[in-house]
Amino acid sequence: MNIWHFFLSVALYGSLFSVLTLALNFQYARGGMINFGTVAYFAAGAYAYAIITQEPPSGLDQYMFGFGAPWWLGVAGAGAAAFAFAVVTGGPTLRLRGEYLALTTFAFAEVFHSLLLNERRIGNGSVGLPNVSRPDFGSLAAYDTLIYTGAAFLLMVATILLFRRILRSPYGRALDAVRDDEVAAKAIGKDAARLRFQVFVLSAIPMGIAGALYAMVTTLVAPNLFTAEVTFFVWIALVLGGERTILGAVLGTVALVAFQELVRAVPFESVRSAQIAASIEEVVTGLLFIIVLRWQPWEKLARKRTAKCQTTISSSTKSPSASLL
Amino acid sequence: MSDNYLVLDKVTKRFAALKAVGGDDGLSFSIRKGSFLGLVGPNGAGKSTTFNLISGVLKPTSGRILLEGVELTQTATASISGLGLGRTFQTPRVFGSLSVLENVLVGADNVGEGLRAALSGRWRKADAALAARAMELLERVGLAERAGHRVSDLSGGELRMLEVARQLIREPRVFLLDEPTAGVDPMLQKKLGSLLVELHKAGTTLIVVEHNLHFLFEIADTVVVLQSGQLLAEGTPDEIRSNKKVIAAYLGAEHAA
Fold it and tell me: Of A11, A188, B169, B189, which shows the fewest CB atoms inside 10 Å?
């Protein structure tokens, strides 16, 4: 693997998983909801894309549905599927607080995973759906990785812009109030349940679209790609980057992806050494996690930026809406 | 009907076996529109619980609470505020991640709190107007210079004033204040007192829980005394001052003789 490939994969997976981290940041750091089922919304998008775009079943296929629809319909369907899954799972659970919500969302994700694994009519069970169809790039087909990287980057930027627009409005302020003190927020008429539900379902849409993109890149959707490990990966990235800031969420994800790609890029002589390296990777990830939790370097950086912006604004202008950074 | 503006009708609240409010018959009293009611009583009398019941933070075990005939006990907590009922808390509850100004600003019902308006950006003009109003209110409670600060920079007394300003931006018709002078220095107390008198003159119905009886009896026109969750006495400040039952409850039976 040369250096160009390395950077390309870091950019591709960094952007793609940043979308998940950003969505989680929106739900958790701003909405105050602990979602430990992140992977399910990602998986719902990936499976929806694969099912919508694949050909109807034939021969040995065990899956029931295939619509042979164009890729853009698949992407839209992926967003819709994640949204629908969020509506179904969020509706009854969002009144739960803290760890209770964490457990319930985790359970929902596990149930969904188990369903994909055992119900062959959805996606061939444990085998998954291979040969996920991709858009036809024509003469640009040789540059497909570059195109997917660009698409992932665009999706990330769109997600950032969407969340930023919402969070910098009075909506974001009301959301902060609800998270800080729900009783006091209700005393000034904030409908905590509505705000939470909207944030939960809205942030599922980019996660689903990221799932579709992931399916295109890997050309395979299978249950073992969508385990709780993905959820933990995204959570670690969020904590690494320091919650509450968009830049932090992206930096944390990119750093974690870069580290994993770096380990993968090391050439190994034997299977044994590769296995050892894989174990070391996990140990070092854990160590990094502890170190970052102890010193929180990026969070400090982000805080400094915010503090600086706020002093400038409060001293220079009387327009307070601008201070909602 | 203005005599029965806000009505508590046989309200009880139990926490497990503890009868916090209402005793056996339930707590009943009503408040005139535009009155200035002081709610007093020894610690544990159920004053704050009564506030929590009126504002919907707690739902009563039995009984009804009505504001202009609307049953608050059947209304969602967030909607009670929309009926024009504002309150402060015994321990100030402010929003730690927002600035002082934003804490007031967030009190208002803002068009930008709808998802569609937030996305379309059609909230800036309304928000700027509200921000100007919030600055005026901060001026009124003496916090204008702190507008850009974090709330963690404020003292306990200043937090109380911030809570008052956050409710005032909603222009409540009924305003419940829970121990507004606790931890507030004499200068600020004076400011608060005249602010409450102004609100009263402007027609706001005020209900104030307060241990500082000197402060309260100067400005309230009616006083309700609670003891062990039950109504002990009701009357003008002068009547209450000379009521033997009240003196006994507050200072001990030997003072009442």
Answer: B189
